[in-house]
Amino acid sequence: MAKIKHNNFLDTVNDVFTDPIDEGILHLYAEGESFNGRTIGVKNKNLFHFGTTGYLGLEQDYRLKDAAISAIQRYGTQFPLSKSYISNPLYRQLEEKVSEMYNHPVVITKNSTLGHLGVIPSAVRDQDAIILDHQVHWSVQSAAKVLKLRSVPVDMVRHNDLNMLEDKIKSYSNTRKKIWYMADGIYSMFGDFAPVKELKALSLKYPQLHLYFDDVHGMSWIGKNGTGYVMSEIDELSENMLLFGTLSKTFGASGSVLVCSNKKLYQEIKTFGGPLTFSAQLEPASVAAATASAEIHLTTEINELQEDLKERIDYFNELIKQTNLPLVDKNRSPVFFIGTGMPKTGYNFINRLMNEGFYVNLGMFPAVPVKNTGVRITISRHNQREEIKALVDAMVYHLPKAIEETHTNLRRVYEAFKLEPKTSKDVSADSELKAQIETSISDIDKVIWNKLVGTSGVQDYEGLQFIEQTFSKNKLKENNWNFWYVIINDENEQPILATVLSSSIWKDDMLANLNASKIIEEKRQTDPYHMTSRVLSLGCLFTEGNHLYIDEGHPKRKDALNKLMQIMEGIEKSSDSMMIVLRDFNDNHEFHNNFLGQGFVRIQMPNSCRIDLKTDESIKDYISNLSTRSKKHFRKDIEAYENLLNISVLQSLDDAQIKQVHQLYENVRKNNLGLNTFAYPLVLFKNMSENPNWEFVIITIPEHPNKIIGVMFCYKNNNKTYVPSLVGLEYDYLDTHQTYRQLLYQTIKRAIQINFKHIDLGMTASFEKRKLGATVEEKFAYIQTSDNFTLELLGLLES
């Protein structure tokens, strides 16, 4: 398989966001002349509001409103000066009140994003290291990445994985002064907690470990003086901890707060903290509202508010327990996540709830993996018991309907989140489609297969027999692959869909850019399987081209695709695969919408190149039909060198030649970390030599007739398609003898000589192939992962 292009992350997010925007559940505008927190106006409807982050409802408290109004009247809408020079007169009181809440010095910041950008580069020194929980908020990750410019290592561990964290601490302990672990106190999607007590114990075991918590979602609704979840777990903030809270969200005002018990570090951050120095300060209204809120936090009233919210949370939890709803994490926070699995089920479910009178949030990629889409519900003091009960009743009724309408079932939802189902009852649409699933091509009808799938590449019947034989019973596990052949028929036994699937070990960075691969390959010197995963894919690592046949005129083609998705999910689970990859697609709108709705994200692959040959066309005729520029290129860079080279086409090789071509292939593989795959075994090249469908276009030079300097490994598909699958090069001759360009030309010449109809030139080097007359097509892959850890870690390494 050719190297996946380094995909623009924003393009991927834009793809995923397009559907929910079109469905009317993202990028909405609230409506109405006023807002009370209990309801929200959306699309001409007044909906009960279950999407707020103002859990205590303080943003509607008259004391905060009056303070803000008074501040505007006295000081204006803003105080346009840098806080480094002079602060708004109201700032001193706010800092005093918030410091009293925490019993530690604080720094007030404009918001948490700017706060992290100011604090992290100040607190973390060049001799330190950073380890991120992979679900820590984007604002923390973004600020931490800035430190890579100072050569500070920024690493990542799976969510709340203390064993993995301890291993990372040990790996940095001899080379780094401090090791900063950065996490959220409460995670905003699932409402789950950081293991704060265990992390504190780990910091006592490893004094180098420093803890950095973003607790903005734990603020106010829990903890003494409403100081948040982290403080409720540790009581006292030690000097090896930094804590971020918020003055917005539950606090009811605006801004964020850093709490730091280390006096020296506190002074350094406050004196000069990047955006803390150069950004505008909070508006007078925000400062005054925050001060009013802090005064409430310093009285026993905050305990009453917390208890009032807790009663609502407990009530919602009790109602959920009595249902079959897939609650992803059971906890006592105000944040709940009901899984829907596929995005299209989530869109359907949310629209149903909105039509029923409830506003909830969509939890989706990149905040969660695409296949872990769901409904994010927040409980606040605005919500009354009767509407909480009504929401649960509506979800119980509408989730099965959404599941049925989107052709899935509850079992798939539970499996997507690794939850134990509460019942064995399944809700799914009946299907008259029948699937034939085999694990060897030998059990498939040869004529049917070659007609449906075997028209291109090495995926005809004989080609797949060759691949099965080659990639089995090998010494290294990465060279042993499993296969599944799927044909889905209608009630009349007519094929609607057919494909080949494989499961094998991939290097995770095969989908990443060169920088990430270089870093990872260094670690693979001691651990060959570092950052590798078992992947279930259309086709296999040795095939390119169209792996999926589908009868586009069949009325049940969508049902067949849905059935294939369910089959793949079952195989993914039984094969312990971590990722599903659907490969080599054109920009097909129907496929695109279907795959996005099924929980895949799209990435762009290298362009694919193909040549369609005319009947009885000679190589001379072919060259004469090239463009003027291409003919000039041919004469200058190819024809001029042809007589200096020995060109031969061999059907088989001796042992010495097999070793040579294997080494030439290895030269190309090692020279291109962009195509970062495991090495193919020597047996592949031996089997090619013994198989009548393979041949070798060989280049030598007269002065060294036994020294091969270039080779193209070519497969003869029974559909009269010629397939140059691999190339091998001696790089010392690449520029002096133009060996790669010569191999491309000789491949075309050979295909014409044996009267083939097509040449599948495959991916990469599309510029060179286009110059020799190839048609270039954009290709895309669709990826579905069990979690976002690998994608986020690769993004961290790429930055």
UniProtKB/TrEMBL annotation:
Classify the source by domain of life. Answer: Bacteria
Q: Name one Pfam family in it.
A: Aminotran_1_2
Matching InterPro entries: Acyl_CoA_acyltransferase, Aminotransferase_I/II_large, AON_synthase_class-II, PyrdxlP-dep_Trfase, PyrdxlP-dep_Trfase_major, PyrdxlP-dep_Trfase_small
Positions of the Aminotransferase class I/classII large domain: 49-394
Tell me which Gene3D superfamilies the record gives.
3.40.630.30, Aspartate Aminotransferase, domain 1, Type I PLP-dependent aspartate aminotransferase-like (Major domain)
Required co-factor(s) are: pyridoxal 5'-phosphate
GO terms for MF: pyridoxal phosphate binding; transferase activity
This protein's UniProt keywords: Transferase
Q: Which protein are we looking at?
A: 7-keto-8-aminopelargonate synthetase-like enzyme
Which species does the entry assign this protein to? Gelidibacter algens
- Source species taxonomy: Bacteria, Pseudomonadati, Bacteroidota, Flavobacteriia, Flavobacteriales
